[in-house]
Amino acid sequence: MSLPPESDDSDCWLLWFDGCAWPNPGRLGLGALIVAPDGRRIELSQAGSRHGCNNEAELEALRIALERARAEGARRLQVIGDSDVVLRHLGGDRRATVEPLCSQLQAVAATLAGFDRIELRWVPRHRNRDADRLSRAALGLPDKPAPVPGRGRPRRRRVADPV
Fold it and tell me: What per-residue confidence (pLDDT) applies to 159?
């Protein structure tokens, strides 16, 4: 599902989504940022309808954001998130076998089908900070600290064999 490269993107909306579960599984926090072609920003931050895991939270966040974008008049949409699971399943690269993910994926796919054009785009977590902040705020959780350049996970060092 993607926009043709030669298409005019002047009427394309942007939608960033994220979800969190605290603990995981636990309460769901849903967050999304929708940006209209004119630059208007719509922030969504709400608690989920039930308890579940982080993948369920991300799917529910995406579903409510898609419904809101449609209600605002979006017809062409670039959907951006850091959920490899959600985006691979919606893109057809994977097939879920676990309920309730199957039914949630079907509901989101049906909602996506109501748009004229959709592009699904994965981004690393640090590039999805607004949606992450909104999903955490829905549960009263603080923002995650910003990543410090050059300070990723410590690399394993190879220890030389004793002589």
Answer: 54
- Tell me if 163 is assigned to some domain: no
Parent domain of 79: 12-137
Domains contained in the chain, number: 1
Mean pLDDT per block of 10 residues along the chain (163 residues) reads: 55 98 97 98 96 96 98 98 95 84 94 97 96 98 81 56 50
Tokens (6 digits) for 47? 């608690």
Nearest to 16 by CA among 110, 89, 79, 85: 79
User: Which residues, including other chains, have CB under 8 Å from residue 124's CB and lie 6 or more apart?
Assistant: 82
CATH number of the structural domain spanning residue 50: 3.30.420.10
Question: What count of other Cβ atoms lies within 10 Å of the Cβ of residue 4?
Answer: 8
Decide if 117 is inside a domain. yes
**Among 10, 32, 11, CA closest to 134:** 32
CA distances 134 to 62, 87, 91, 108, 113, Å, are 13, 19, 25, 20, 26
Helix (H, G, I), strand (E, B) or coil at 52: strand
